[in-house]
Amino acid sequence: MQRLFAGTPWDRPPTCDRCGKPETECDCPPPVAEPKRLPPETQTARVRREKRAKGKLVTVVGNLDPDGNDLAALAAHLKTRCGAGGTVKDGLIEIQGDHLAAIESALRILGYKTRTS
Questions:
Q1: Where are the domains of the chain?
Q2: Which residues, including other chains, have CB under 8 Å from residue 64's CB and lie 6 or more apart?
């Protein structure tokens, strides 16, 4: 395959993004593969309400493997679905407010089994 500027003054051999050497001379280790994700059908999420300081309610999603799931992306999806803020702390997804039913239905649509505790 020919490069776009082959034979012109801008014709440069491809270089490594990490070390800057030409790809033929690069000795960088291969890029790390993305971690293996667990299918949602094999996991059961525990959804519960907690009362925090000053009487604030928080909906907490737990019992999901942090290494087998992209918890940040799942939290972003749930926050969008509920129209609320939230965070991921210590392997738990916390959504501000009482959104138990909405979160359970969103998780079921994604394929997760749910339990309310």
A1: 40-116
A2: 43, 45, 71, 74, 91, 93, 112
**Nearest residue to 29 (alpha-carbon basis) of 21, 18, 38:** 18
Ordered mean pLDDT values, 10 residues apiece, the chain (117 residues): 62 80 86 85 96 95 93 96 96 97 97 94
Distance CA 6, CA 12 (A): 8
Q: How many residues does the chain have?
A: 117
* β-pairing verdict for 44-51 and 113-116: parallel
CA distance 76 to 73: 5
- Name, in order, each residue with C-beta under 8 angstroms of 60's C-beta and a sequence gap of 6 or more: 47, 48, 49, 50, 92, 93, 94, 95
Assigned CATH class of 40-116: alpha beta
